[in-house]
Amino acid sequence: MRYMATLLTGVLLMPAAAEARPVSYPEAWTVMLRNDAYQNSAHVHYTFDTNYSLGLRVRYDSDGDFTFTGAQLNRLIKRWNKPNSQANVYGRFGIGKAYDNLDRSELRPKRDSDEALFLGVSADWETRRYFISAEAQHWENGRFGEFSSFHSRLGIAPYVANTGALHTWFMVEGHNRPESRDKVGATALLRFFKGPSLVEVGIDDQGEPLLNYIHRF
Q1: CA neighbours within 13 Å on the CB side: how many for 124?
Q2: Which end of the chain has the least Cβ crowding within 10 Å, N or C?
Q3: What is residue 101's predicted lDDT score, i.e. its pLDDT?
């Protein structure tokens, strides 16, 4: 396996928010949906400890035309709480199966399924007004191949909302996917959250839409 040597800096919102973080408060369930030009992904996880959550991950890869289904373990590695900011570092590990999505009528070899796994690390730093974040992942998909992805975000809130009010962020996301058809790109998006729900809508530099949704129970 190729090593991922990437690290990060980041942000999201303030602690009461339904943030895009892989570990919530103990006994909480979280649904995380991500849809863009490269993937359709659903991750449902349960936080059983202040530092760990465990759940199911299903991810359709549009480049490789296969679907990953498996278990994902998330860990809060480190958190820094300051009077006006917070920073976090997270690790992720998933293991499962990759399934072929090719139309059998096509003249292509039948690939069926194979074992697959991924590793990821992310970090964020936040205030009530600004954020920066970064994430790196590496996937091993057996006969379906391997790939890495690197994402970073910058964001600003046009206003500082009180707890329980509607929060809005303007964000720009940059990505590098060395094995994909478009190796480097960017997405402009808006994030809205209120209470336990978060929605992100955007469009990338190729005109492809992005739609993400997160809800905590």
Answers
A1: 22
A2: N
A3: 77
Give the model's pLDDT for residue 164: 85
**For residue 89, what are its two tokens?**
């570092």
Query: What single DSSP character describes residue 161?
Result: P
Neighbour-count burial for 120-151, b at 16+ CB within 10 Å, e otherwise:
bbbbbbbeeeebbbbbbbbbbbeebeebbbbb
Strand-strand pairing, 85-100 and 39-49? unpaired
CA distance 214 to 204: 20
Mean pLDDT per 10-residue interval, the chain, length 217 residues? 32 40 91 93 96 96 88 97 94 95 58 89 95 95 90 96 92 91 91 94 95 95
Q: Burial level of 82, CB count in 10 A (0-12/13-18/19+)? A: exposed
| Length of the chain (residues) | 217
Is residue 211 a contact partner of residue 35, using CB atoms and an 8 Å limit?
yes
User: pLDDT value at position 100?
Assistant: 86
Beta-strand runs (E) in the chain = 28-35, 39-49, 52-61, 66-82, 85-100, 113-126, 130-140, 146-156, 167-176, 184-194, 197-204, 209-216
Write the single-letter amino acid at 19. E
| Cα–Cα distance, 29 to 177 (Å, whole number) | 30
Cα(214)–Cα(217) distance, integer angstroms:
10
Q: How far apart are CA 73 and CA 52, in angstroms?
A: 7
